[in-house]
């Protein structure tokens, strides 16, 4: 039954006009009433501008919670309505797959957990979720602290030299260092080194992002993909990463074979708490491509997202000094000069709210992608099998119908003693980590990582937009990037002087002299 939709997608990729395909395939599929979903008209070329979700927001205000958007032979349904999003992601999630996302990411993630569908996804989700158990995440907090401390040392130098820093690339390196250790116990040390492997990771990431916004899949053209210098570079980068992965898997396998630990639910090897170690100890097949696909998936999923969250959080903070003072007060009183511990995660309530609010204004990724596997009803609209969907988290998070002062960065909108906002308690108007069975497996990991980084950085430094910094504008790949970086001036915080007790005498004398 999937054949017509495969054929239809194939033909549409070859450039057949959508109208004709629809006519033919509606006839093949049987001819129910055709959908009455509003159809966006106008200059669709605007969608190819840097941040494609911005024109989608304008169209949402005009056409509402679900509308169709066509460019050339391609057509998408854009969803910005919480109950339709809930239906697709949760209530009837079985009827939807990752669609074009799986096609775009195949070269790097294969059948890894993000693009995988059906039985493969079910089996792998069941293998991977247990690896991120509470004790593992708690063990990661020390790693988050050490990695952030390395960044602090770097910023310390910049502060002394009076040199501005480009924070987006530093955050990208911070989160790469963290995820490398966390997923397969590899120290990229990208904050200090530019090794070949770091460059390879960025080559692959850039390619994945370019492919997600490319109008035609030129990388699929048979000869081109072998002779294009760029595609060759991507292939070489992939090979280097895969070879490194193979080495890491072999090293880890040896450790697992030698250790005496019994595998159990909250298994953690203290020397190597990585997800890879857990998976191998739980009996994962070392030789499988599946394991490599999943590791690669987590490397990318956990790296770019967190980097983007930190970038936009610091951008937002640079515009709200009053939020920064509150944040610093909390961090000063909870942490002082200590590294954060897992107990602190509960106490850093305002820090958490700042990140919740940053994730509302800059969701990563800004849209979720799905394809319908069967006919379905979305609210009052019937839809066909084989439709491609963009669920615009950006629109949900910034809808004037769902939020008061939707565009305002206001961490206070989340009461400190209320529950931490998530898709369930916000009825799918807020989905920073998705929802339903395909919800992010790294949500707690990522939240703690961001809390630790923000807390440690604002504790030590003040951040301001650098004088003459380029304007901060958005562009998209998988996550929201700045167009020209986030250039900031970093200064060490001047802590309020602490009055030493011994000085009381001197102070009295001074005061006495004054009153003389
Ligand atoms: C899925 C966001 C960090 C691993 C997702 C999804 C979102 C998301 C929105 C759902 C995608 C969809 O439904 O199409 C984020 C954000 C992060 C973050 C904002 C950081 C702030 C991480 C980390 C890891 C991770 C650190 C790994 C350790 C995954 C995986 C999936 C996923 C494997 C796919 C789950 C599945 O399909 O079953 N993430 N993520 N993420 N995320 Fe994250």
Automatic annotation (TrEMBL):
Provide the GO biological process annotations: xanthophyll biosynthetic process
Q: Which cofactor does it need?
A: heme
Q: What PROSITE patterns does its record include?
A: CYTOCHROME_P450 (PS00086)
Q: What Gene Ontology molecular function terms does this protein carry?
A: beta-carotene 3-hydroxylase activity; heme binding; iron ion binding; oxidoreductase activity, acting on paired donors, with incorporation or reduction of molecular oxygen
Source organism, top-level taxon: Eukaryota
Q: What GO cellular-component annotations does this UniProt entry give?
A: chloroplast
**Keyword match rRNA-binding:** no
State the similarity comment: Belongs to the cytochrome P450 family.
Query: What is this protein called in UniProt?
Result: Protein LUTEIN DEFICIENT 5, chloroplastic
- The organism is Acer negundo (Box elder)
């Amino acid at each position: 039954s999937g054949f017509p939709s495969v054929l239809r997608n194939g033909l549409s990729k070859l450039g057949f006009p959508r109208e004709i395909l629809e006519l033919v395939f509606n006839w093949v599929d049987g001819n129910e009433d055709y959908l009455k979903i509003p159809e966006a008209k106008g200059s669709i070329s605007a969608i190819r501008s840097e941040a494609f979700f911005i024109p989608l927001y304008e169209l949402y205000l005009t056409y509402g919670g679900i509308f169709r958007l066509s460019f050339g032979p391609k057509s998408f349904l854009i969803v910005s309505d919480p109950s339709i999003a809930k239906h697709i992601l949760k209530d009837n999630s079985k009827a939807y797959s990752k669609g074009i996302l799986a096609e775009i990411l195949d070269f790097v993630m294969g059948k890894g957990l993000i693009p995988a569908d059906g039985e493969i996804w079910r089996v792998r989700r069941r293998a991977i979720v247990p690896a991120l158990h509470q004790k593992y995440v708690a063990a990661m907090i020390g790693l988050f602290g050490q990695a952030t401390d390395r960044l602090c040392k770097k910023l310390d130098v910049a502060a002394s030299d009076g040199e501005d820093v480009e924070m987006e690339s530093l955050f990208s390196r911070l989160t790469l260092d963290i995820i490398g250790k966390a997923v397969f116990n590899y120290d990229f040390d990208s904050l200090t080194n530019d090794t070949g492997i770091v460059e390879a990771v960025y080559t692959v990431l850039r390619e994945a992002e370019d492919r997600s916004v490319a109008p035609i899949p030129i990388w699929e053209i048979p000869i081109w993909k072998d002779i294009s210098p760029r595609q060759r570079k991507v292939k070489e980068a992939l090979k280097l990463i895969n070879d490194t992965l193979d080495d890491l898997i072999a090293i880890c396998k040896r450790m697992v074979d030698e250790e005496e630990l019994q595998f159990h639910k909250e298994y953690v090897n203290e020397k190597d708490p990585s997800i890879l170690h857990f998976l191998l100890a739980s009996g994962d097949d070392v030789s499988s491509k599946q394991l490599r696909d999943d590791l690669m998936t987590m490397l990318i999923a956990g790296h770019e997202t967190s980097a983007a969250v930190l970038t936009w959080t610091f951008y937002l903070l640079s515009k709200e000094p009053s939020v920064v003072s509150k944040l610093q007060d909390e961090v000063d009183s909870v942490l002082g000069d200590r590294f954060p511990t897992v107990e602190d995660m509960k106490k850093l309530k305002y820090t958490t709210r700042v990140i919740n609010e940053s994730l509302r204004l800059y969701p990563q990724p800004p849209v979720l992608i799905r394809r319908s596997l069967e006919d379905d009803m979305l609210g009052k609209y019937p839809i066909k099998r084989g439709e491609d969907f963009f669920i615009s988290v950006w629109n949900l998070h910034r809808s004037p119908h769902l939020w008061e002062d939707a565009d305002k960065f206001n961490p206070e909108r989340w009461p400190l003693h209320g529950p931490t906002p998530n898709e369930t308690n916000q009825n799918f108007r807020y989905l920073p980590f998705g929802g339903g069975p395909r919800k992010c497996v790294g949500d707690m990991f990522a939240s703690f990582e961001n809390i630790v980084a923000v807390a440690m950085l604002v504790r030590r430094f003040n951040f301001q937009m650098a004088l003459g910094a380029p304007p901060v504008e958005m562009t998209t790949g998988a996550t929201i990037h700045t167009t020209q970086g986030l250039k900031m001036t970093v200064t060490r915080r001047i802590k309020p002087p602490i009055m030493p007790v011994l000085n009381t005498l001197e102070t009295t004398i001074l005061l006495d002299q004054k009153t003389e």
